[in-house]
Amino acid sequence: MGTGTENILLDITGLSKHFGGLRALDEVDISCRQGETLGIIGPNGAGKTTVFNVVTGFSRPTSGDIRFGGSKITQKTAAQICRLGISRTFQGVRLFREMTVWENVWLGQNCQAKYLNPLFWSRGVNEAALRADVEALLNEFQIFAKKDAKARELSFGDMRRLEICRALATKPKLLLLDEPASGLTPVETTRLIDDLRKLSDAGLTIILIEHDMHVALGLSDRIVVLNFGQLLAQGTPTEVRHNPAVIEAYLGKSAEAVNA
Question: 169-185 burial, b for 16+ CB within 10 Å, e for fewer?
């Protein structure tokens, strides 16, 4: 992981999002460096998913600035942001349930399609290469054997892995994961941690929201803590783990278990 402002891939400054009188985000500053795994933690309602929704164009900020690779993306659409290299998963798994496993990942590649006219489009590379990419992703996440099954037929853990595969099919520079360990068994969580470490080791920049503190602290190079829409603390996992304000606001009685 590099240091210095020249290595910042995502730079969020003064980000606010209001829903009527509710300030879901209030002047939040977050940066993520190229190749870093950044964890975002905080109590329910802290504004974590709102950050993802605004960054990915699913929601417009009330104020603030978001830059990706140095370019402002604050007013771009979700499709434009995806094409620039930001992809995400969701807290509640969102798959095309009546499509097969293969079709879900294949469809993820379409974000890079170049439309020639209303009736025809071209992906810009040969189909054999694209099929090889899909096969490689499904093998990497150990679901290739289920490629012909419909998404709805998968176990919940396999659905989580499929959603990550589909996000990776867009070839992102930045992957946003919204509670990827939610609902997983301990064995599935261990496998997920291994998969995400491989992605990080390969140089992919990742931002993850996670309630499972062992996952968040174990995977992240740096942690950002939100509380009531405001930045409460940030630092290394060790610094955050021992921060009294974080312990009081979020970890509470679980702090002893986390520090064990």
Answer: bbebbbbbbbbbbbebe
